[in-house]
Amino acid sequence: MAADFRPLLVAAAASAGLAGCARPEPAAGPEPRPVEAASADPAQRRAFFGETHLHTALSFDAWPIGVKTTPDQAYRFGRGEPIMAMGVQVRRAWPLDFMAVTDHGEWMGVLNQLDDPTGALASSALGKRMLARPGGAGRLAAEAAGRPETAGAMRGAWTAEVEAANANYVPGRFTTFIAYEWTSMKQGKFNLHRNVIFNADHAPPPFTAAQSDRPEDLWTYLEATRRSGIDVIAIPHNGNVSGGLMFDDVDSDGRPIDAAYATRRARNEPLFEIIQNKGQSETLPILSPNDEFANYEVYDRLLTNTGERSQPHGSYVREALGRGLEIQARTGANPFKYGFEAGSDIHDGLSVSSEDGFTGGPFGTDPATMRPSPAQARRILGEPPAPDAPAAGPSGYHLPILPNAMDFRPGGVTGVWAEQNTRPSIFAALKRKETWATSGTRIRVRVFGGWDLPADLVRRSGWVASAYARGTPMGGDLSAAPRRGATPSFAFAALKDPNGAGLDRVQVVKLWLAGGAYKERVFDVALSEGRATDPKTGRAPPIRSALDVRTGRMTGARGAVELSGVWRDRAFDPAAPAAYYVRVIEAPTPRWSTLLAIKEGLPPPSGAPATIQERAWSSPIWYSPPR
After folding, report:
1. Where residue 394 falls among pLDDT bands split at 50, 70, 90?
2. Contact between 537 and 521 (Cβ < 8 Å)
3. What sign has the CA pseudo-torsion 142, 143, 148, 153?
4. DSSP β-bridge partners for residue 621
5. Bridge-based pairing state of the strands 339-342 and 271-276
6. Residues 459, 562, 467, 532, CA torsion sign
7. Mean pLDDT for the chain overall
8. Which of 413, 385, 378, 397 is nearest to 100 (CA)?
């Protein structure tokens, strides 16, 4: 556990323009506060944290691994209530502000019919095959969906999703969205999945990859839904396992992306999920060799064939931002103009984002009640079995274990700046991309870009209002330069998680066009503990770790409560399109695998780093030269 900086947070938040997000831990029980009318003053927007990617027992790949959690239970867990799951009582470490359950649209609810042993599916020859080997039932879901009695089951499952979202929506306290996942798997192995999020209390039945695996056809469904009066967006994820197809420079028919395609994609998909349970999709060392923080939570093996690595190029969003600039220069439109968000993609309905609430695989856990047994822990960590070890954990909980459990990580978290905690307000923040993503920590980030931002802006009283008036928030576009020779600057403020580690540094990642191809560079723009960058290398010394890896405890406070400032791009070329985003890095803390090893008296596993540096990513701000 990191040192507790909470006595300093309120003062730091006020000085950094982040007040309203350094609030005390919200309790699960009090009545919701009244919903106020949305403020016309953007400076009054507050920070909210949420989950936009979660599966329950209604997903075809969750039921086969023993998941029984319902969408209603998942929402109640997300809002901080205790629920029963896997035979034990569980509770989230801290309540979310908003949430979307995104069960797979394909064959939703089909396998749940097998829970009724007298039902038509369970009594059929196919059902008996599935029940004989429930772990493989997901591979037979499509065949089961072809049976006439399953159509009603799928309609009933979607009704349950809608009803659960509406029943758990408490405006002012907890926002829910009707949602599902479109599960396109090109050639049976390349991930092109999207989460579909509706801004309404009703929604049409899901358009699924069983109907079409082409993103363009999904966009047609989204456009028709909007014409019917329901606003909706799609959020792609796991580019890291897309085999290079997620951010390819051609459409589904292999034709080079043109302006029509680029415009349509950007309109339907404003956000990209940059991190989740199956790794991060920001970048890799092979793509960003000069980025010392690129080798973070890498998951690069294909989902349906873990023996095959995914093609790096076309799979990561930093490269996509650069490719987008190239395509815009050629066609006049940018297909990869993505803001950033994060989710969990956890498959047992338990949205967790902390390292100690995770023990491998696509599962969330409550460390108080779902601790694996010593035998299970050894399997997860790749240790040889110990004799006479019990098969179940201390509470009788039996943990499903995947062969590559160590490759997984806890869920990420989406942050938004919104006027109030309601569907319209949160959804509007998602659409305008005033969002940031975190690896699971509650770092708060605010970023503005502009041409005349004073160097001391963030130290001034009321600086946020001034930044909105003078510039554009993250997710937006810089206005035209006011005069010849003007250079853009970026005001930023980052506040640490109330219960997490201190901040190591704030960085600006810049991408720009030069000679027709994109370039990238990472700048350290704020460092904790009085460190400075080396003028020769441009790099800063690493922060000293306060972690004892033998105990998992911090031996002292490291890093800063808050880092803020204004950075000016002194290498700015007004003729070169560019994109800028902020990355905030925490001081080192133990990875979940290290914590599990410590609990079992084992050394940290050799197949994973002992420590990690949690982080946050702001949505980019773009610059386009005048045409």
Report:
1. low
2. no
3. negative
4. 580
5. parallel
6. positive
7. 91
8. 413
3-state secondary structure of 214: coil
Q: How far apart are CA 497 and CA 586, in angstroms?
A: 9
Rounded to 5 degrees, what are φ and ψ at 558? -130, 145
Element (H or E) spanning 490, and its range?
strand 489-495
How many CB atoms neighbour CB 7 within 10 A? 8
CB atoms within 10 A of CB 303: 17
Phi-psi region of 203 (alpha: psi -120 to 50; beta: other; left: phi over 0): beta
CA-closest candidate to residue 423, choices 271, 164, 199? 199
CA distance 45 to 255: 42
Q: Which residues lie closer than 8 Å to 525 by C-beta, 6 or more apart?
A: 492, 506, 507, 508, 565, 567
Q: In DSSP terms, which residues pair with 340 in a beta bridge?
A: 272
> Which has the closest alpha carbon to 18: 622, 588, 524, 584?
584
Place of tokens 């110990």: 386
| 182 vs 600, more confident | 182
The pTM assigned to this predicted structure is 0.94
Report angle CA 277, 278, 283 to the nearest 5 degrees.
115
Check residues 383 and 280 and name the one with the higher pLDDT: 280
Q: Is 98 exposed, middle or buried (0-12, 13-18, 19+ CB in 10 A)?
A: buried
CA separation for the pair 487, 510 (Å, rounded)? 14
Cα–Cα distance between 506 and 353 in angstroms, integer? Answer: 22
What DSSP string describes 352-365?
--SGGG--SSS---
